[in-house]
Amino acid sequence: MPSAPAPAAAPDHLQWNEGGAELHARWQSENGAPPPRRVVVADDTLTADAAWRLACEGTAILWRGDFNNARQLLQAMGRRAQRKPGKAKGGAAKPITEVFHLHRQAQAQRARSLGMLLIPVEDDYRIPLRRAPDLGVACTEAYGPARGPFVVSLRELLGLVGAHEWRKKGVRVPALDGDIHPHYGVFSPVRGEYVDLVAQAPLPATTLAFDIGTGTGVLAALLARRGVERVVATDQDARALACAADNLGRLGLTGRVELLQADLYPPGRAPLVVCNPPWLPGKPSAAVEYAIYDPDSRMLRGFLDGLAAHLEPGGEGWLILSDLAEHLGLRSRETLLALFDAAGLKVLDRLDIRPRHGRAQDADDPLHAARAAELTSLWRLAPR
């Protein structure tokens, strides 16, 4: 049965009752979710149906049983989250924008519910559960040096493991003829078509380029490989800059690319400025979604509004952007062109490419129609 809400605790601490005592621990959530107010302690006797019911009611489950059983329980809860209600007969198809928002709401609710299965972690990143693996390296890569015991959702913890494996294995980037190793919280270049566009576009100069919002550093590395003598790559996220530094070092390009922590532009002007902003206007619901969702198109607008002032005479700005937002009814082509015009920019050319990712061919995806029509474009822009 769900317990009563715990007494008020520090905003970053989880509090619960166990064995008649009030306990608390630091709460860890990369998505900034607040600590659950209701917590029950459970072990291997808890059924998946009971766990899913508690989670949907907003009650967190602090796990004291076997770690592998917790992982199996999370998988069983995930299967319950995927159950679809029966379709209404004779109803008209919903507009794609409404379908998108309903899809986002369902994703957020699923993430909240699955995030209710909690795991204790000790000071040295040891997990005090039977058959728990050693996740010290994965935790250190994501969180940094240990700062004391904490409680975290199993879902987040497994995300750290997945990120560690991606970082170790790397992502092959054919246009770069090399691998990119994404770090935790930094968006992986698994959709390689936008990289291909940057590989194909004619360079206006090879002396200097700015890469705005570098992320893993993949585009900065590609520009250097294409012969640009010096690249200044910016990002406001320290994790992204550390990831880019790692990748540039692996590729032997450290001396060609300067990394700078900045919100958008570095000082000065360049003959080429490249930016691959988040493609969808909207509010991220997770840290990694900042690479997908751009609240109020802030980064897009900031890049466009500052571009003319940061281009050398005769220079170009390359905007890499999917038109998925247009097919979802989130931003029209007319709105995008108006942003160009308001920033005093003209379009020199546009290179297009079709996406190759699996969801573009997945007819069961609720957003299939929009994904199937999607184009990714490299807009070559210049001051009017």
From TrEMBL:
The keyword Methyltransferase applies. Keywords: Methyltransferase, S-adenosyl-L-methionine, Transferase. One of its GO terms (molecular function) is protein-glutamine N-methyltransferase activity. The keyword Mitochondrion does not apply. Residues 205-321 form the Methyltransferase small domain. It holds the Pfam family MTS. It comes from the Bacteria. This is Methyltransferase small domain-containing protein.
